[in-house]
Amino acid sequence: MFVITVGYPASSGSRFDLDYYLQTHIPLVHQRWDSLGLKSLDLYRGTGTPDGGEAPVVMLALLTWPSRDAFEAAAKQHGEEVFGDIPNFTDMKAQVQFNEPAS
Questions:
Q1: What global pTM score does this model have?
Q2: Which of 15, 46, 49, 83 is deepest in the core (most CB within 10 A)?
Q3: Cβ partners under 8 Å of residue 30, min gap 6
Q4: Where are the beta strands (DSSP E) in 10-103?
Q5: How many angstroms separate the Cα of 22 from the Cα of each of 18, 27, 81, 99?
Q6: What is the pLDDT of residues 74-101, one digit of tens each?
């Protein structure tokens, strides 16, 4: 299993169009990548911190793939379209991390 986390860090003056993200971008991801191995796509909206502060991350997406190779093949095939859609919903610089099981 291979998991990619994509986080959009909150920053003053930045734009994140949640409606576009949920109604257009996420369906695009599913349309292009489900048949290529995307096993799951879990979304988490930042709502705050334990001390009542603002969430440091606006949105966190966890994309689960069978392997890194599967993701890389899917990205090669449709990455330009999927990644090219990002400016349509945000001007934030996503923080992307590759993750594998610890044990």
A1: 0.92
A2: 46
A3: 38, 41
A4: 40-45, 57-65, 95-99
A5: 6, 7, 16, 24
A6: 999 999 999 999 999 999 999 999 999 9
Closest CA to 42 of 59, 58, 67: 59
CA 90 to chain centre: 12
Amino acid making up residue 33: W
Q: Classify 15 as helix, strand or coil.
A: coil
Domains of the chain: 2-99 (3.30.70.100)
94, 18 Cβ separation under 8 angstroms? no
Q: How many CB atoms lie within 10 A of CB 28?
A: 14
SS3 for 86? helix
Mind listing the pLDDT tens digit for each residue in 33-58?
999 999 999 999 999 999 999 999 99
Distance in angstroms (rounded) separating the CA atoms of residues 5 and 64: 9
